[in-house]
Design a protein that fits this description.
Number of strands: 12
Radius of gyration: 21 Å
Number of helices: 9
Order of helices and strands: EHHEEHEEEEHEHHHEEEEHH
Strand content: 25-35%
Strand order of the largest sheet: 1-7-6-5-4-9-10-11-12-8
Shape: elongated
Distance between the termini: 17 Å
Oligomer: single chain
Length: about 270
C-alpha cells in the first residue's frame, strides 16, 4: 500500500481524540491532564478541540453532524487496539524515539519529536515495515566479534548505566556470581571497554498482549569502535536478566529478528484482524 502523509499531533491532542472516538488509551500514551482539576481538564479539552477544528481535523457538517478526519481515526484506532507494539529508540543521546503499532494490514508509526509533538505515519504491512523501516531505524554496524560466549548481567544494568551517565554499578564479583563460565570476567572486561567507548546504544522492545496481560521481549545493542554487543532481556526463576554477547552484522540482525519471531509467531492471535 502507499504510505499516507504524516500527521502532526500534540500529546494532548492524541489523548483528547482517543476520548472523542471512545477508544482505549493507546499503549505508551500517558494522561497529560493527570494533575489537573475537573474544571481545568474541561478547559484544556475545549482548547484542544478548538485547535483541531481550526486545523480542519474535526468539525460539524452542514447538517450539524460531528465529524473527525478519517485517516486520523484510522491511525488512532490502530494505536488504541493494537496487540503488538514495538518501541525503537537511541538510549545514548535520546535523539530518536518511535513507537510502532502493528495491525494486520499496516503499521502506524508514532514518532516523538519532542515532549509535546508526535508525528503519526501510516506504513506498509508489518513484514515490509519491519524489514524496511524498523530494523534500519535501530541501526546496524559491521564489527567482527573477538570473543564468543554469553555473559549474564542484572536486568536493570543497561538502563542504570544510561541513567547514571556511564557509571558502571556492577562489581566484578556480582558478574562472577551470575556466570559459571571462566571466560565471563574476560567478556565483562571487554563489555566495560565497549561501553566506555560506545558511540551509541539502541533498544528495540516489543510488547504484546496475550492471556489478558502485556508481555515484553527486548534487545539492546551497544555500538563501539571495538565490538558490537547485544544484550537480550530474559526471565529466569521469576527474575529479569540480560544476556550479553559480541555479534557481527549478521548476528545483530538475527538477534533483532529473534525478538520479532518469538513475539509474532502466532500472528492470528497477536495481530488484530
Amino acid at each position: 500500500m502507499e504510505n499516507k502523509e504524516s500527521l502532526y499531533l500534540t500529546h494532548k491532542e492524541i489523548y483528547v481524540l482517543l476520548g472523542l472516538i471512545k477508544a482505549p488509551i493507546a499503549f505508551g500514551i500517558d494522561d497529560p491532564f493527570l494533575a489537573l482539576s475537573s474544571e481545568e481538564v474541561k478547559k484544556e479539552w475545549e482548547g484542544v478541540i478548538i485547535s483541531l477544528r481550526d486545523r480542519n481535523l474535526l468539525g460539524k457538517d452542514e447538517d450539524g453532524e460531528f465529524w473527525i478526519d478519517e485517516d486520523m481515526i484510522t491511525s488512532l484506532s490502530v494505536m488504541a487496539y493494537s496487540n503488538v507494539v514495538i518501541q525503537v529508540d537511541s538510549l545514548y543521546k535520546m535523539t530518536s524515539h518511535s513507537t510502532f503499532y502493528v495491525a494486520e494490514e499496516f503499521v502506524i508509526e508514532c514518532e516523538k519529536l519532542n515532549n509535546k509533538i508526535f508525528r503519526l505515519q501510516q506504513l506498509d504491512e508489518p513484514n515490509v515495515s519491519i524489514k524496511n523501516v524498523i530494523l534500519p531505524r535501530v541501526g546496524l554496524d559491521h564489527k567482527n566479534p573477538s570473543k564468543s560466549g554469553i555473559l549474564t548481567l542484572p536486568g536493570t544494568f543497561i538502563n542504570e548505566f544510561i541513567d547514571n551517565k556511564s557509571y558502571l554499578n556492577v562489581e566484578d564479583e556480582d558478574v562472577r556470581n551470575l556466570n559459571d563460565s571462566t571466560q565471563s570476567l574476560s567478556l565483562w572486561k571487554d563489555l566495560k571497554k565497549s561501553l566506555n567507548r560506545s558511540e551509541r546504544i539502541s533498544r528495540m522492545v516489543m510488547y504484546y498482549f496475550t492471556d489478558n496481560n502485556w508481555k515484553v521481549e527486548g534487545v539492546f545493542a551497544v555500538f563501539s569502535p571495538s565490538n558490537n554487543w547485544t544484550l537480550r532481556m530474559i526471565e529466569k526463576d521469576g527474575k529479569e536478566y540480560l544476556q550479553a554477547k559480541q555479534v557481527d552484522l549478521l548476528g545483530l540482525t538475527k538477534e533483532y529478528g529473534a525478538v520479532l519471531e518469538r513475539t509474532l509467531k502466532d500472528k492470528d492471535f497477536l495481530i488484530l484482524k
